[in-house]
Each structure stands twice: as structure tokens, then as C-alpha cells.
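quick one, 348 residues, struct below
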Amino acid sequence: MTIHRSIWAIALVMILTLAGCSEGKTSNEQFQFLNELGINADDKLLLGDTVGMPDIYCGDPGQTVDDLQGKKLSQEQYQALVQPAGAGIADAMSNWLLLGVRDMGGGITLAAYYAGNGVGYCVDLITYDKQGQVLDAINTREMHLLWRVNMSDINNDSVYTLDSHVTIDGDALTLHRVMGRCVMDFEKEVKGAPLWQQAWQQRYTINGKGHFILEGQQVVDEQGTVDYYAAMDFKSWDMLVCSRHDAAIMDTWNSYVAQIEATYPPDYEYNPFPQDVALLYKMNPQRFLLWMASPKGSGSPLQRYFKLPPSERPALLREVARLDDSSARQRLTSMINSWDDKPLTRHL
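---
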């Protein structure tokens, strides 16, 4: 009996050991592309259920980039991991930190990055396949949001501020935002209590292709008398937090036009929406043009907010020429040639 127990004990130890090795091997395989770049995805570098947005520029004056937990990227690592994500993500910043990674299942890895240059910063989420190829990327926060609102008619010590974090649950991500107006002491970089604030959430799922799919956006709390003009200004920019591939986002933008027009009169020259629509186009020109040429896009409300300056139209026409449908090429070319040189907006 003792011998049999000993044999079973040894067998059990071997099974557990092999299971542990198998689990470790799976984990190593998942992050192998990081290991090859000299990044060890140990416990300290694994993302938890909450990803905070570091508030360096406009928060605690004693906090610096050096206080952030993460792996500072070398130029080689930046070129391999971030640069392929393209414009709007791979912006020139002096500091790039990998805040953490997470296995999202199905061979997909989610990574969170901080980028800052002492003036502004952003936090980006990027998905990869097992080979480290970029699947999708979204910019979850930019400090430029502080300057979105035209402040020519208000005191210089007033500023709109935005705080946010991301929660992860299975294949779903929720971006939590709180925006409001407060008094700002720029010399001491200290923010006062909000005069009003509004909180809302944006929920995404990561599909089997590693794309961020926007499931919806909703206001979850308001305090004080909300300046809806300012709130809409921020939300217009916030709509750019989206997948670079999912075509359904175009339907969301089109339905958003009604809210824009309810906020800004048609002749309001500082309407930020045309600028944001142009940025949506630049995320993925072919996705944008295919939608514009489709039955949904032809004559859509969104179409009247799309216009590029003369200097950018040759490149736009080259993108149109790539479309397979000759009638779509003709309609879009006619639309572009009908534009005058006057910009749709004077907003920043």
C-alpha cells in the first residue's frame, strides 16, 4: 500500500509539473514576439482589470514620467511595436512606455502604451497576433482635449479637463471618462474643484480579428449645470476613439450628425465636426470612401461634413482611383471636384 501511494504521489507531482510547464510554455508562446525584442512580459508587465490614464501634464506637479510603471521602449522596439500602427498612433513623442500586456485569447495580445513629450501625452491600446503583427489600435486619451474648446471669451484660468480609465472584462473593454470645467493654476499646475462635470462610458469588444468594435456610448452621471456645447465639442473628438478597421463605425458617425446639428447652428464657423470627419477619413481612407460610395453613404448627412483642403485633394483622388467600382469612382470624383477652396470650419 505504501509503495502504491508513493507511486501515485510521484505520478501526481509529474502531472502537476508538466501542467505547470505547459502553462508556462503557452504564456511564453503568447508573448514570444516581445521576448524576441528583449521585453520580458513578467507579472509586473501584465495588465490587470483596470488601466489608468496617467495624468502627467495637468495633474500632480510632483509626478513625472519617471514615476510611471512600465518598460521604456528602445528605438528598435518602438519601430517594431508602435510604428506599424500608423498615423495618429505612431506620433513623434520623446518617451514611449509599454504599460502592460494581456492575453485576450484566440492568439490576440492587447498592449497599453504611454507616450509623452513634456507638453502633451496619449495612452494607446494596440492588438497583435502571435507574430507581433499589429491588428488594430486606438488612442484612448490625448491631452490636446484640454484645448478643444474655443476659450477666447472665457478667463485664462478656466480649463476643460478630462479624466479616464479603461476596464477589461473578458473580450470587452470599457472606456470611462469624466469631463468638466474647473479653475486651473497653470503656474502650479493645480486644478480646482469642477464647476460642472459629465461622465460617460464607451464600450468595445475585441473580435476574432483583433479589431476594437464600438458597442455603444452613454452618459452615466452629471453634476452641476453642464455646458452641453462644450460637452458636445469633446464628444465629437471622442468619436475618434475607435477601430481603424470596423466599417460599422461609419454608421455610428452618420447617426451622430443629428446631435451635432442640434448643438451647432448650420452657419457656426467653429464647428469642430468637419475637422474630426477628416481625421476619421485619414484613419483608413479606403474604409471611409467605400462607405461614402455605398447606398448608405451616398447623400448621407455625414457627406456634407467631409471636405479636404486643396493641398490634400491629389492624394484623396489617388485613393478614389483605387476603388474597384467605376460608378463609385465617378460619383466621388464628381463630389471632390465640386468643392470650393473655402474650409468648412475655422475651429483650431
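Strands lie at 50-52, 71-72, 95-105, 108-116, 121-128, 134-142, 158-169, 172-185, 190-206, 212-223.
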